[in-house]
Design a protein that fits this description.
mainly beta, Neuraminidase, six-stranded mixed sheet, four-stranded antiparallel sheet, 26 strands, 4% helix, 43% strand, globular, disordered N terminus
Length: 289
């Protein structure tokens, strides 16, 4: 059972701080040019935002290697899939206050936060419990090998679960406390977390060593990472998107329309970003050719 103080914090966070974590094939490399300080301004980077779908009360979004798009909604008990033909399919899940969603090939994982469970939705439609003893799982991410990473903010740890079911955990940085809000992972099993309460984004190596990712964060929110170790963060409470490249350069990602406050973000294998926002919309941000 959640402690009363923490339960209140998490309820408030759940209303305000959705997340997403999803790892996909390396996107096409984008070109940047230097501006003042260490902030990089993109050259025609993600200039076009394509509206994909109306999504009331979105919480998280994920994309698999086939570019199938999955998303959760605060008031829905199902994970939903946006199919390639534009239709929406309910995958089920019997969820209560779902949060993060992740996908590896045809496997879909979801943090069933309200029930303190992590679930896998099989291609057959059956639902399987993953792990046990979660305090308040909120973020999930997968790597190219099919390992699952579960962020449990109250327990202040990230748990790695292999396809064979082996579990190992690392602590989240002390500087985050219980304010971790999103998790991502790259192809080297490095984990990335955003800490909205302390204005940090951290890279956590498999041995638990943590280091800051870029700087200048203010209310880092939704987060995802790609295989290259590039990290995409909804900053300023999700009102802007920044990319921190694996080389430590900070890139301000622009769109040609107001997409609203980003609450979930995923990096697709097509090199594009998929986001859901508090405008109740899902967008695809097109990377330059």
């Amino acid at each position: 059972m959640l402690r009363p103080r923490l339960a209140g914090q998490l309820q408030r966070r759940h209303r305000q701080l959705p997340l997403s974590g999803q790892v996909q094939r390396p996107p096409r490399r984008r070109q940047h040019h230097q501006t003042r300080g260490d902030r990089q301004q993109p050259r025609d980077d993600f200039g076009r935002a394509v509206q994909l779908l109306k999504v009331p009360h979105p919480r998280s979004v994920a994309v698999n290697s086939n570019l199938d798009v999955y998303f959760t909604q605060e008031m829905s008990s199902d994970v939903k899939e946006l199919t390639s033909n534009g239709s929406v399919k309910n995958l089920g899940g019997d969820l209560k206050l779902p949060w993060g969603v992740a996908a590896h090939r045809s496997q879909v994982y979801v943090a069933d936060s309200g029930n303190a469970l992590v679930k896998q939705i099989l291609p057959s439609g059956k639902v399987k419990l993953v792990g046990s003893g979660w305090d308040y799982p909120s973020g999930v991410a997968t790597d190219p090998s099919g390992n699952l990473y579960v962020l449990d903010p109250e327990a202040e740890k990230i748990t790695r679960i292999t396809p064979k079911g082996s579990l190992s955990s690392v602590a989240t940085p002390e500087a985050c406390g219980e304010s971790t809000d999103a998790v991502g992972v790259d192809s080297q099993d490095n984990m990335y977390v955003s800490c909205v309460g302390t204005n940090h984004v951290f890279k956590i190596q498999p041995d638990g060593t943590a280091s800051d990712v870029c700087s200048h964060w203010k209310g880092p929110f939704a987060l995802t990472s790609d295989d290259n170790g590039d990290t995409f963060v909804g900053n300023n409470g999700g009102t802007s998107i920044f990319e921190c490249t694996s080389g430590g350069r900070l890139v301000d990602i622009k769109a040609d329309t107001n997409i609203g406050r980003v609450v979930g973000i995923a990096a697709g294998g097509d090199g594009n970003l998929y986001v859901v926002s508090q405008k109740f919309e899902m967008y695809k941000l097109i990377a330059p050719q």
